[in-house]
Amino acid sequence: MYGKAFAPEYQGSLTKLSVNSSLTDVLAAGTEQLRAAERAGQHGEAARSGLAVAEAHRRLGQVGDAERAWKASYRAAREAGDTAAMAWALWSGGTLARQRGAFPLARRLLQLAADLGERGGDVVVRGYSLAGLAETGRIQGDYEAVHRLHEQLLAEARRRGEARHTVWALEGIAQIHRNTGSYDTAYALFEEAAEIAARAEDRRGHAWALRGLADIVSVRDGDTERALELLSEAEAGCRAMKLSSALAYNHKMRGNVLYRAGRYAEARGLYEQALAEFRAMSEPRGEALSRLGLVKSRARLGRDRAETAAELAELAVVLERIGLRHAREMVARAQEEFGAVAGVADAAAEGAGERAGAGAGAVVVR
User: Computed from CA positions of residues 163, 164, 169, 171, in that sequence, does the dihedral angle turn out positive or negative?
Assistant: First the structure.
């Protein structure tokens, strides 16, 4: 039913690249082709190779380089009059914006990409852009609004036999079920995604599916060792492809598994590692989730109660500003669990609000 997974974002002279190509190899090949196209004045080819450069930078966590690259790809596509290439560049920009926590910008860019993809007759970029919109809503916790879109995109991917997109949709729907407590349904969907990804040789999708299975095995079954085994298998795939963001989320999930098992000192170390990785790539969602795990681990290890309350209050403000509803609910549960001190919490929230206001608007499109 499904063929071998492919990477439609590797275009022009780079179509020979595999979905499993190391990102450092993609970056090197894309940069070489981009420079050659620019020297030859081939705007269309520059746009297509520039897209691969942008995506490699983004997945490596090099957000500044990624932003410059997608914008340059868009300008080259516009110069060439290539509507579909313009859509792909906007898709890359929207995906980067979501990664950086700029959700309103992500939605604007992804909607523009979907519209241009439809106008340019490229059903793949349209599908990827709609998927990006669905994922943005899911990450923010707006499950009711995006569940149907996930299902629609899953049906389209199955109909076209696109393994990679089918895996993405299954994982998204699985995550919604996991976050709403339907663990058995989530497990079955993650399991199907892992099987399809393995057959299609989609290492990235397989790694994310294994991470999802590990989460369910930990939270539902309490099987810590099996969960850690699944995460180790996923980590090997992430390292082979240099998937910086996926690897950081893997480490954060390993912290979750250890925390649930009561191994708080080990969990603290993993959360600290993940936090440093997310900060290095300017990924606020991962950073906030790692901070939450770290606060809880330190509290379990005897940290001062008022300090715990103050940091949880600050985190609540940060998550409110970013717009992460599900994560904000997780903080609220932690505040209840650890008995947040009201006076300290209020003071911390006020200070965090001032800092959040000063740092707003980090993503600018010119």
Answer: positive
Which residues have C-beta within 8 Å of that of residue 280, sequence separation ≥ 6?
61
pLDDT band at residue 348 under the 50/70/90 scheme: very low
Give the mean pLDDT of 65-90: 98
Residue 344 has pLDDT above 80, yes or no: no
**Tokens 């300017």 map to which residue?**
282
**Nearest to residue 210, comparing CAs of 243, 236, 239?**
236
Give the model's confidence band at 340: pLDDT under 50 very low, under 70 low, under 90 confident, else very high. low
Q: What is the DSSP string of 21-79?
A: S-HHHHHHHHHHHHHHHHHHT-HHHHHHHHHHHHHHHHHTT-HHHHHHHHHHHHHHHHH
- Rounded Cα gap, residues 137 and 48, in angstroms: 28
C-alpha–C-alpha distance, residues 237 and 235, integer Å: 5
Give the residue carrying structure tokens 């240099």.
242
Contact indicator for 173, 136 with CB cutoff of 8 Å? no
Cα–Cα distances (Å) from 75 to 47, 96, 131, 178, 362, in that order, read 8, 17, 24, 40, 22
The predicted structure's pLDDT at residue 135? 92
Query: Where does the chain show beta strands of DSSP type E?
Result: none
Give dist(CA 147, CA 108) in Å, integer.
Answer: 20
Query: What is the Cα–Cα distance from 348 to 352, expressed in whole angstroms?
Result: 6
Burial class (CB in 10 A: 0-12, 13-18, 19+), 121: exposed
Of the candidates 98, 84, 178, the one whose C-alpha atom is nearest the C-alpha of residue 131 is: 98
In order of 33, 46, 130, 137, 307, the CA distances from 161 in angstroms are 30, 30, 18, 25, 52
In this prediction the pTM is 0.85
Percent over 90 (pLDDT), the chain: 80
